[in-house]
Amino acid sequence: MPDSFDRNLAELSSSAAAIEQFVDELGLETTVDLDGKVHEKEDLIGEDSCKDLIYFYDSSMQDMYDSSHQIDLKGFQDGSLNLSAKELISIIGEVEAQKILNFFYASVGKAPVSKILLRRTDSDGRSGNHLDFHTDEAEAGYKQSTVIVALNADSDVNGGALYYLNRNGPTKYRRSQGKAFAHAYNVLHAVAPLEGSRYSLIICFDQSDNSDKSIIDGTGLI
């Protein structure tokens, strides 16, 4: 892991004051929840569903390249593909899709689904190729809470650890294939530098007070 990311983790592990200062320096408009929980669920979806989602992403993106293209891991590439609810159901089935939604509802609370996407992150692991601590509200511009499902495991890449930050400091979480994480919009999280290709399914939920429309409306999902 590059020294810069290590140093940040060390500083945030040093004291509660260091964490408070870090949060203040982020300059976020709303309060970060340093007591916010991270919810985990092993094997939320099966191996076949993970492989089918990876295949769908790669095959959908293939037309961007010629048949001889090989991904160049020099630097950092973060690609995403938006899915409709019907596409998700067609790939993994209604039962698996509903399991993901139910996990979020039980963990964070009921909210409309605002976005479904597949993400592939490719990196050579060098310094700077990481995702700093952030909240999803800051990224989205509204109260976007999230479920992340790991489609491949930590063992498939070098580095790329998932960290969450609370008032006790940063905590490292292990990704295994099919494992899900749920967190509210105001919980800080980060991804360490990685070497290799990592796939995730991400479902976003809009917890803004005036939101009631969900992209799962009109499907069998609830």
How is this structure best summarized?
The protein is of the alpha+beta class and 222 residues long. It has helices at 3-12, 16-26, 47-61, 85-92, 94-107, 136-140, and strands at 39-41, 76-83, 113-124, 131-134, 144-150, 158-159, 162-166, 169-173, 180-183, 188-191, 194-206.
Features:
seven-stranded antiparallel beta sheet; alpha+beta; 222 residues; 11 strands; 28% helix
- First-last Cα distance: 41 Å
Provide mean pLDDT, rounded.
88
At CATH level 2, the architecture is: Sandwich
Number of strands: 11
Q: What structural class do helix, strand and pairing data support?
A: alpha+beta
Query: For this structure, what is the CATH homologous superfamily?
Result: q2cbj1_9rhob like domain
Radius of gyration: 18 Å
CATH topology: Jelly Rolls
CATH level-1 class: Mainly Beta
| Helical content (DSSP H or I, runs of 4+) | 25-40%
The SSE string, one letter per element, is HHEHEHHEEHEEEEEEE
Extract low-pLDDT stretches.
none
Strand content: 25-35%
- Overall morphology: globular
The figure for the number of domains is 1
Q: What's the main sheet like? A: 7 strands, antiparallel
- Figure out the total of helices: 6
How would you characterize the overall build of this protein?
- The protein has helices at residues 3-12, 16-26, 47-61, 85-92, 94-107, 136-140, and strands spanning 39-41, 76-83, 113-124, 131-134, 144-150, 158-159, 162-166, 169-173, 180-183, 188-191, 194-206.
- By secondary structure, it is α+β, with helices and mostly antiparallel strands.
- The chain has a single domain, classed as Jelly Rolls (Sandwich).
- Strands 1, 2, 3, 5, 6, 9 and 11 form a 7-stranded antiparallel beta sheet that branches.
- A hairpin with a 2-residue loop joins strand 7 and strand 8.
- Helix 4 packs across helix 5 (94-107).
- The chain is globular, with a radius of gyration of 18 Å.
- The model has no long low-confidence stretch (mean pLDDT 88).
